[in-house]
Specification:
- By secondary structure, the chain is α/β, with parallel strands linked by helices.
- The protein is built from seven helices and ten strands.
- The strands form two sheets. Strands 1-10-9-6-2-3-5 form a seven-stranded parallel sheet, with helices on both faces. Strands 4-8-7 form a three-stranded antiparallel sheet, covered by helices on one side.
- The model has no long low-confidence stretch (mean pLDDT 95).
């Protein structure tokens, strides 16, 4: 089941998404949150940190597992997703650092790295709420378009469109890593609830394909149509091709 929540703009989308996350924490203080990086969830993280400062939220019992990490980047690399999460959320709230998990991009052996992260996820008891963005090619996490839906954590070769999209965070496109460790589609689908955030007219076409097109691994996000509890929060521009359908 998919619910669509229409937001006016990015800031409104961020507040609405943060409201859903905060409600999850309030109802279940020991929630396991699956978290995402990038510009889409950044505004929601700012809202959550602000509400924590006001005394409205308590992250003390929360556990987090992140979707992905660039292969080859250490935790202290400013472009690593570990660094991103600590800068934009973990350092701003009272979450226990020992309960925040991000794939270890420094593990050279991809089999070892993926097995280790799958064990960590299983050890949490399962994700209560998984936060996702959607790439221009329909990727969720770093699950790129492919012939099959990947199951568990795996190492992926990033598509050229993903590399180009992420190059805005680097000094040059040559610096963008070409591989990453990511949760698999099955792992994402095992989450009890899924929250998708999307904004901008450049995402309108993929939103239409993902949620109103056929279910295919060539549009990884389309698998979300089969999940029992998905909420998509999007702004007017991102929803511009589906307003008559929701």
């Amino acid at each position: 089941m998919i619910r669509f929540v229409h937001a006016r703009d990015y800031d409104d989308m961020s507040r609405k998404a943060a409201n859903i996350i905060s409600a999850q924490i309030i109802v279940k203080p020991d929630s396991v949150l699956g978290l995402a990086t990038g510009s889409s969830p950044l505004g929601a993280y700012k809202c959550l940190a602000h509400w924590y400062d006001k005394g409205d939220l308590d992250f003390a019992q929360v556990t987090s597992v992140n979707l992905d990490e660039y292969r080859g980047l250490s935790h202290d690399n400013e472009q690593s997703y570990y660094y991103f999460m600590h800068k934009n959320l973990f350092s701003k709230v009272n979450i226990n650092p020992e309960r925040t998990f991000v794939p270890d991009g420094t593990i050279v052996d991809e089999v070892e790295a993926c097995k280790k992260y799958d064990e960590i996820i299983r050890g949490t008891g399962g994700v209560d709420l998984q936060l996702l963005g959607i790439g221009h090619n329909g990727h969720i996490g770093f699950n790129e378009p492919d012939e099959v839906f990947a199951k568990g954590t795996h190492c992926v070769h990033l598509s050229q469109t993903t590399i180009e999209a992420n190059s805005r965070f680097f000094d040059s496109i040559e610096e963008v890593p070409t591989q990453a460790y990511t949760m698999g589609i099955q792992t994402i689908m095992n989450a009890k609830r899924i929250l998708v955030v999307v904004s901008g007219v450049d995402k309108a076409e993929i939103v239409e394909k993902a949620f109103f097109g056929g279910i295919t691994p060539w549009v990884p996000a389309s698998i979300l149509q089969l999940h029992r509890d998905v909420t998509v929060v999007g702004d007017t521009q991102a929803f511009s091709k589906i307003m008559d359908l929701i």
